Amino acid sequence: MSQQVLDSMDLERERGITIKMHPITMKHTHSDGNEYVLNLIDTPGHVDFTYEVSRSLRACEGALLVVDATQGLEAQTLSNLYLALDANLEIIPVLNKIDLPVARVPEVSHQISDLIGVLDDEILKVSAKTGEGVEALLSAIVERVPPPAGKAEDPLRALIFDSAYESYRGAIAHVRVIDGRMRAGQRIRFAATGKKSEVGEVGILQMSQIKRSELVAGDVGYVVTGCREVRDIRVGDTILDLDHPAPQALPGYREVKPMVFAGVYPQDNDDYELLRDSLGKLALNDSSLIYQPESSVALGFGFRTGFLGMLHFEVVQERLEREYGLNLVCTVPSVEYKAIKQDGKVEIVDNPVLLPDQGTVDHMEEPFVRASIITPEEYIGAIMKLCIEQRGIYINTEYLDTDRCNLHYELPLAEIIFDFYDRLKSMTRGYASFDYELLEYRESKLTKLDILVNGEVVDALSVIVHSDKAYDWGRRVCDRLAGLIPRQMFEVAIQASIGSRIIARSTVRAMRKNVLAKCYGGDVTRKKKLLEKQKAGKKRMKSVGNVEIPQEAFLAILKAE
Fold this sequence. Notes:
Shape: globular
CATH topology of the largest domain: Rossmann fold
Helix content: 25-40%
Largest sheet: 8 strands, antiparallel
Distance between the termini: 44 Å
């Protein structure tokens, strides 16, 4: 037992966030004397995991809208509330942390009332820390949330909302049985993939897996599927009975696609095998993590890895370093672009190195998102300026109350994956919150920017940027690298180029050895002779000299702003 018992990862406890969802089956004795079974799913709230959240909401009849009494409504809370409303769930508003001295109970209650149109006495005030109001909350769940509507006599339909992997039993699906029954030995088929299998075991999830003879309509539990890979079990898919299949699968399934791509390399090339094995182990429990081998002239052998977003990227990076003892170098994260060639063919580009020759490309498209930023009114000007800098298109402003408003912008995804969130938080003292959803691909003036060190292109530093920002980006990167690359015995030129055109340059000055130190007198021609000899030597050294780029340089590009 621990303080945050459902947050099983160290990262979850440290950051105070949920990364991996946790279903729990519990029993509650109501004031009417009856014992009720409550199936609870603790989902992540971050935008990176929106699809998983939407599927887990479809597995429920009700949702708790938990709002922090000190923070008020946040953008991701609103986003997930709309998902719950779309799923026609019974919403129970809950105000948490009322025990804190800085809690703004009347003010935040008013925000919730205005948002979902409930009376103040319908909002449950609780403190999860002291236990105040928790008993009333459990009673409200029993009274307000309707019971499951499925029928045990109908053909089997079970919704997969999560999955895990165990070494000896293979892939395990976490399911909500919508209709029918499921038991060990039953032959099943996955609707989306068409894969067939046989159920090895079923049960419910409490603090551990508890085996049951069967799961019936309304139950939430686990299924040992007999599949050897977690990729065969896709979130949102429907499990059907192979012998007596239901006429149609449950709606809403789509394949989860990575949004952010980065090269992941070991600092020591000898750790390549360890990195490959570590990524393989992480991918067993995370079907959204994809990776494939790639090589770089600058960094050696590594993997091109796809992530759901920047939080997912940071979590995977930290887990690789903590759990497997790896020291990593990651290239600049990139989104997936579309290069439309002059012959009409479309190429998907997730790595700047793979961008086709600009002469063959008619135009390029990049993904845009609809962003929602909830902020106190005093920071509106600063946030609008930031969004304009990031090529944002203003949509509208909604006032949630007299002091807080919701700004809507359309932004290129590439502009918000670097440090947009950090800058937003710093300029609003942490009060603003940010959420987004993908819209579509739009045509943009994009170009590939290369960085040359000593005349050689460093492929790991190449990026795809908007043409209007290429000069500023190139100049900042060159200046940053000039401060990080150690001085050599010869002058090192750091250049940014678009195609064959150099647009920015910085120079690392050469170290100067004093060859005249031994000349304590004599004719000036002797000194000139020594200086000419040094000059010729440096020129020869420059033509064959290799410059070692330190690991910090690759990390510094992320902070080029």
